Amino acid sequence: GMLAEERMRIAYFECASGISGDMTLAALVDAGADLAAIQAGIDSLGLPDCRIVAQEVNKQGFWALQITVEHAPEKAHRHLHHITAMIDRGKLTPRAGDTAKRIFQKLAAAEAKVHGTSIEKVHFHEVGAVDSIADIVGTAIAFDLLSIEQLICSPVPTGNGFVEIAHGKCAIPAPATGELLRGVPIAPTTVEGEMTTPTGAAIVSTLAAGFGPLPAMIVERIGYGAGQKE
Questions:
Q1: Which of 99, 141, 184, 226 is in Cβ range 3.0-4.6 Å of 41 for a Cys bridge?
Q2: What does the pLDDT look like over 30-49, one tens digit per residue?
């Protein structure tokens, strides 16, 4: 038999309903990542009163955990270097800090490309919002807390139709999401609406070692992360 020491801890993301930052964080918390430890890490970033609130919800008859980020309204326009500095100042483990910075780097590169600007100049207006920072840093902390050594992800559905963004009406997947999903298997779906967000796409495209069906593994924990939609 396999000795416990030889086992690798794998996380498998089943993205049947797409993926977003809050869905990811909620699933990881439901799978056992300590919310208080994640909150402490977020607090160390120096964001004005930013609270991660977890609540149990029912989605189409199934129990799931939903995460909402509560914070004071703010007008900050952050660039990547602001976010990197914030993460470096925070009290995060080296692994969690590095994971968060890698996700933001990927997100910044995609936003810069689709807006025709540079990584240094790109404004995180939709992405650098406090909730995205909390979702990404929270996910990075949760990965560390759960000692996840490898992430495998299912193919990702994007959804169909149009989404309203700061610049107006935009086909789904939004350009940044599409850019981040280059090289990622897309799952077919007839669902109308945005199922995968830039934040969700950045998390899986940065962290997943591979995409496909559930690998051979012994399942220890299961977490259900709900999005804001039904």
A1: 141
A2: 999 999 999 999 999 988 78
